[in-house]
Amino acid sequence: MTAPVELALRDGIATLTLARTDRHNALVPELVDALRARLAEAVATEPVALVLASAARSFSTGGDIAGFLAHAGTAEELLAYSRRLVSGLHAAILELLRFPAPVVAAVNGPLTGGSLGLVLAADLVAMSRSAFLQPYYVEMGFAPDGGWTALLPERVGVSAALAIQLLNRRIDADEAHALGLATQVVEPDGLGSAVDAWMAALRTKDRRALAATRSGVWDAPRLALVAARLDRERDRFLDLVGHPDTVARMRRFSGGR
Questions:
Q1: From the UniProt record, which GO molecular function terms apply (predicted)?
Q2: Could you give the CA distance from residue 51 to residue 33 in angstroms, rounded to a whole number?
C-alpha cells in the first residue's frame, strides 16, 4: 500500500508528494500525520528547498467528506475526529511556515477546502493552467479552516477573500496569478520544468540568506498571530461541523450515504 505522503531527496532538494491518489489527496488524519512526519524528516536533511507536489489528478480536495461521515455516529465521535484533523492540518501549516528553507508548491489540479493552507504556506507557487482553487465551505455548512480566514485576507485583501468564500467562487489559474496566489502559471506538462528552473536558481543563492529572508517574513510575532487565527478557525469549524444541517449537507454531497 502506498504511503499517503512520500519524501524524496535529490541534489539537495526535498520533495513531499501527496499520494492518497484514490481519494484525490482528500485530507484525513492519517495523511496529515504522515505529512507532518515527513516534514520533520525533511527538516533534518537541511535541504536547499522543499517542494510540495501531488501524485493524484488533484492537488488536494480538502477534508474527506467520507471521513467525516464515517465518524458521524455520535456528536462526540464527529467532534473528536474533526478536532484531530483540523488541529493536525493547522500544525502542518505552521510547520511549513517555519520551514528553514524556501517552500515551493506545484499545483497540478483542483485545490479545495483546507488544503489551500498548504499552498498559502509556500513561497513560490507553480500552478497548472488546468488547476483551480475553491473554498466550498458555505456549500457544506462548514466554517473555513486551513487559513482561509487566517492567511488569505492578508494575501488578497479582505474584500476579495470574503467574496471568494461567501460566493464559493472558483478561481482559475490566471486569476490566482493576478491575485498573487500563484507565482507562475504553466501548461500542465510544464509544471516540472518550472519547478526545476526555480530549484536551479535557488541552488545558486546563499542558503543562510535564503533562510534569513524567510524567517524574517515569518518571524515570531507574525507566526503567533497566524497561530491564534488558526486556533479560532478550528474552534469555529468545531462549532458547526456537528450541526444537523451540516451533516445533512455532507450526506447529500455523498449521495445520501
A1: isomerase activity
A2: 18
